[in-house]
Task: inverse folding
């Protein structure tokens, strides 16, 4: 598992997690798995998600760990809002999704391993863009 229940405690207290899940750790595991799948779906076109999510402990990208935690907490809070500020987590979730969309679109480039072809070269697509046509009206 990429993150554990213990790591979610940086966002929710033990008693909140236990009240939301009714002491059922399978619900926490499900929320974490959903969050990992969600983050993977944004990164999969450009980055080597199997390499990113197979790391453990200090080898993991702290940025990706944080976004997975935020997504997992958000999915837990959808079940029940026990003594937690839902609006705060909803905004954090929206910021994480916005970040992941920018990464997927190539606007941001976190320090993650890129997908590679069989020859070992980075794979991906090339985008050519230009500014909007500018005309003067005299």
Result:
């Amino acid at each position: 598992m990429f993150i554990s229940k213990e790591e979610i405690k940086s966002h929710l207290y033990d008693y909140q997690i236990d009240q939301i899940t009714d002491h059922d750790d399978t619900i926490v595991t499900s929320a974490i798995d959903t969050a990992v799948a969600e983050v993977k779906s944004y990164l999969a076109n450009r980055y080597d998600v199997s390499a990113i999510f197979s790391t453990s402990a200090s080898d993991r990208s702290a940025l990706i760990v944080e976004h997975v935690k935020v997504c997992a907490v958000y999915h837990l809070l959808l079940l029940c809002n026990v003594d937690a500020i839902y609006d705060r987590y909803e905004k954090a979730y929206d910021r994480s999704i916005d970040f992941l969309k920018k990464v997927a679109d190539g606007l941001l480039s976190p320090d993650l391993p890129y997908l590679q072809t069989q020859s070992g070269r980075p794979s991906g697509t090339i985008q050519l863009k230009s500014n909007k046509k500018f005309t003067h009206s005299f």
Summary: The chain has one domain: 5-105. The CA atoms of residues 67 and 96 lie 6 Å apart.
